[in-house]
User: Fold these one by one.
Assistant:
Number 1:
Amino acid sequence: MTPYYENQPTATPEITSQAKGRCLANQPCPISGYWFTLAKADSRAYFKQGDIMPDYPHNNWGQVIWQFEGEKG
């Protein structure tokens, strides 16, 4: 029997969450601009590319995921 993975067509690489405008806490900011997270009220802030995205470990939301809002305030 041939293993399942050998018969599959070559998959197109999936777009990472960072490319979609999302970034996990404690990860470097992928693009400079304004970001917000639903894990903390009034969290909207400007981050430069490479900045480490903040974490809010004791929130009621769960995992902190930052969402890109745009480059202009």
Note: The CA atoms of residues 4 and 10 lie 13 Å apart.
Number 2:
Amino acid sequence: MKKIILVLNHVQAGMGSDEHANLAPSGKKAALGPGQTLTPYLKEQEAEIIATLYCGDHYYLEHQEEVAKKFIGFAKKFQADAVICGPAMHYANFGEMAGSLTKYFIQYGIPAIAAMSIENPATQVYQQEIPIVKMPKKGGIGLNDSFKNMALLAAEKAKGNDTKALEERICF
């Protein structure tokens, strides 16, 4: 089984809404929030979420390097094969967090992907630099396909496979 780490903001991790946007970085050795939906799709790809890392998106925006170092250190310590940042959908602050963290992980040699909608401002900022799996704006039509695609791409990256053709189909 390939080891995947999921990175979420405070809302997606179930840690409250905007009053917790300054939540310091933390994690749990479990699949939180959207990780529950991703779990069966990852299992089909012989991968599993070994931990969910999270922090408030405002906290992240004010302490990017500190959070990135902690999350990269955790991923290396637990020998993660790949990281999924998101799904950030259309949420701008979470999109910025997911996009920049994906970039950090890749720079440190850890395969990583993000997931967000075209409405997210971070999609335009990062789409030339990182793989961003396409998602609908909120729930609804295409959401299950997005989760399947996130699992497939993360697992293929974890296995060290060439994902160029796959990314052309499912990413921005």
Note: Residues 103 and 130 are 6 Å apart (CA to CA).
Number 3:
Amino acid sequence: MPGDVLMSGDGRTLTTPVDWTDCEDKPQLAAEETAHTVKLTLTRKRHSFLSRDTVCDDRHDGLVTTTLSEPVGNRKMTDAVTGSVVIPFDASHLERPRYLPPGYAPADNVIAPGNRSDPPYTRARTPSWTTTYQRNRDKGGQAGYVSITEEPGGIPQTHGTAISLNGRPAHLQERPGGSRSATWADKGYAVTVEAGDPLMARDEFLRIAEEIHR
């Protein structure tokens, strides 16, 4: 398994970020279920017509899902290859934006705060998750993104300028090129909202952060 796992509110659908090259099909996520366990496997398939010497430089990233026959419940979830325990992030705890600028839509990949989550992905020590929204993806023009990352029990970063978002203490960082992030604590979670969009004004970013809700 390459990265964090998101579990749907009904406990049946599992999602994880993946990366692959032009030499491969998009990886597939599969689950082997028993009464007490769920074992996850990520299957990769290289194109059979390619020679072993073919250089595969172009990389892609996205999300893959699998649906279980029964909710995870109290069953132990593991990586079928390494045997390591997988603790999913419960989607019912996801923060969602009440407001996004025109043109933004849910993305089928992950752009994590602080970087663009370049593959390979790695699982966090705690079950965190990043939800990403993008503007003008693959449509030409100036693209932009907004991501919301949550980590239960995490400690919000305190770098940047201390601000207040709807009465809750937060910290704002602004970077060259229009990248901004705000971090705060909410109901036992560290929440980070980041935007990379040179067309987005500071006030608009703060509106997004203020209107995040669970």
Note: The first strand starts at residue 6 and ends at 7.
Number 4:
Amino acid sequence: MESFIVTTSGEVSFTFPANGSDFSLKELQDSVNGYIEIVPIRKNVGPLIFKEFDKEGFAIKLTDEYIMIVNSEGKIESQQFNYVATVLATASESISPGDWIAGDVLVCRSRMVK
């Protein structure tokens, strides 16, 4: 699982940089529908299993090699709460307790963003 987008509806879809190695700024912005902010994964997570969004469910396991790209203005723009991204960010101690993620996010290895 190199890189994937987690939508506010809980859908997870794999994505890849157009050049095969790292995402351009435009690709990052398109993934989150706006300006980006990088949220580092500070602690290994998972596997966390999410079943409520998909009949078969899915598991996500992350290490500190990953980062989460979020919309820096997601809350200001009143984007929807992203349950999966919030669980991942909370479990990895990447956000403060009680904080949350709004909007779609891109999760990828940090080497994929330059």
Note: The first helix runs from residue 25 to 32.
